[in-house]
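TASK: fixed-backbone design
INPUT:
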C-alpha cells in the first residue's frame, strides 16, 4: 500500500527554526520527525511513501540520498506551486500512479495510531474515505467532527462555541482514501481537503471516522514541538529515547534536567538546562541557563533564556537575559 505524506508547508509557526530546516526534518529526540512517522507507516504495511513536497524540496533529497526512510521506499512529488492539502494529495497520488486504497497524512503530527486498524475500519464500512480522530480537552480552537454510532461523519463544526456540539474529537490528520477521492480534486488549483473535499464526501454519506485514545500531538507550534521532544525522553510515550545525541559534547559540570541535546551540540561548563531542546550543532557557552527553550544557534556565556526560540544563524551575546523572544525575530509566529 502507498502513503502520501504532506511535507510542503512553510512551517511559519516554528520560525526561525524552519528557516534552515523544514518542519518534517526537524529532529524529535534526535530522530527526524519524518522518520518517526514513516516508521509507523512501515509497521502498518506501507511499502512506498510519496512525499508531497513544495517549499524547499532539496533538504529532503539530501536527507534520504538512497530514497529510503526508516527502511521504506520514498517517491518525491514536487508541486510547481503550493496546492493546499487536497491539491497536494491529488498531485502526489497522480505523480506516483496511485490507483487503489492509500493512506494520506500530515507531516507534522506524531502519534501511536496503529494505521492498520484505521485501514481495517475503513474496509469494514466500505467507506470512500476514513479520518482518524483524537479527543481534545478544549475543542474551541479546532475543527470538531460529529459521527453517528456506526462511525459515519455527520458534520464538521469549526471552532465551536460552548454548547454548539457535544463532540470532543478532532481531525487528527491521518486518512485512508480510495483512489476515487483523487478524482474529486481538480488538478492545478488550490484545494483544501478539510474545507472542500471532506464536506462534499459527508454530503454523499461516504466519509467515515475512527477515534482512538493513543498518544497524539501536532508538532507545528514551538510549545508542542518542545513537548513532543520531552515526551520521548521521560516515559510519557511507550518509546523512551536517549536525551543526548551522538558526538554531543556536554561539560561534566553542566546539568540537564528534562532536556534533549542534539548531535554535535556543545554545552559549556556550569550550564543549567531545564525542559529545553538544544538542536544538532548548537553551541552554548559556559554558565548558560535555559528554561523551556529551543536553541539551534550560538548562545554566549552567562545567558539566561526562558521560552526563547533561537535560529541556526543567531548568535546571542554573552550575558543576555531574555524571556519569550525569537532570534532572529520572524514577523509572524507565536509561542
Ligand atoms: P504553518 O505555516 O506554521 O501553519 O505550517 P504548515 O505550512 O506546515 O501548515 P499546516 O500545519 O497547516 O499544514 C499541515 C500539513 O500539510 C503539514 O505537514 C504541511 O507540510 C502540509 N502542507 C500545507 N500546505 C501544503 C501545500 O500546499 N503543499 C504541500 N505539499 N503540503 C502542504
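OUTPUT:
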Amino acid at each position: 500500500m502507498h502513503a502520501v505524506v504532506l511535507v510542503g508547508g512553510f512551517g511559519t509557526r516554528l520560525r526561525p527554526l524552519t528557516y534552515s530546516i523544514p518542519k518534517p526534518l526537524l529532529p524529535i529526540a534526535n530522530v527526524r520527525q519524518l522518520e518517526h512517522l514513516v516508521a509507523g507507516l512501515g509497521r502498518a504495511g506501507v511499502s512506498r511513501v510519496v512525499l508531497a513536497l513544495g517549499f524547499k524540496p532539496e533538504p529532503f533529497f539530501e536527507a534520504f540520498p538512497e530514497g529510503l526512510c526508516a527502511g521504506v521506499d520514498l517517491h518525491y512529488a514536487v508541486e510547481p506551486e503550493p496546492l493546499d492539502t487536497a491539491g497536494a494529495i491529488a498531485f502526489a497520488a497522480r505523480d506516483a500512479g496511485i490507483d487503489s486504497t492509500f493512506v494520506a497524512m500530515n507531516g507534522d503530527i506524531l502519534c501511536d495510531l496503529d494505521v492498520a486498524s484505521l485501514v481495517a475500519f475503513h474496509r469494514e464500512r466500505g467507506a470512500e474515505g476514513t479520518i482518524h480522530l483524537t479527543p481534545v480537552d478544549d475543542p474551541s480552537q479546532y475543527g470538531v467532527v460529529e459521527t453517528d454510532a456506526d462511525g459515519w461523519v455527520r458534520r464538521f463544526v469549526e471552532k465551536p462555541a460552548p454548547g454548539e456540539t457535544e463532540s470532543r474529537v478532532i481531525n487528527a490528520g491521518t486518512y485512508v482514501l480510495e483512489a476515487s477521492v483523487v478524482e474529486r480534486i481538480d488538478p492545478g488549483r488550490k484545494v483544501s481537503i478539510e474545507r472542500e473535499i471532506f464536506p462534499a464526501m459527508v454530503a454523499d454519506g461516504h466519509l467515515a471516522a475512527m477515534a482512538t485514545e493513543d498518544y497524539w500531538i501536532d508538532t507545528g507550534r514551538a510549545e508542542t514541538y518542545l513537548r513532543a521532544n520531552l515526551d520521548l525522553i521521560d516515559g510519557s510515550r511507550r518509546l523512551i529515547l536517549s536525551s543526548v545525541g551522538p558526538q554531543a559534547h556536554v561539560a561534566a559540570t553542566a546539568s540537564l534536567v528534562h532536556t534533549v541535546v542534539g548531535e554535535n551540540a556543545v554545552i559549556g561548563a556550569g550550564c543549567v538546562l531545564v525542559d529545553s531542546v538544544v538542536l544538532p550543532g548548537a553551541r552554548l557557552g559556559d554558565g548558560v541557563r535555559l528554561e523551556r527553550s529551543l536553541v539551534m544557534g550560538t548562545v554566549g556565556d552567562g545567558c539566561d533564556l526562558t521560552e526563547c526560540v533561537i535560529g541556526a544563524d543567531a548568535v546571542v551575546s554573552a550575558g543576555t537575559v531574555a524571556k519569550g523572544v525569537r532570534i532572529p525575530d520572524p514577523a509572524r509566529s507565536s509561542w
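COMMENT: The chain has eight helices and 29 strands.
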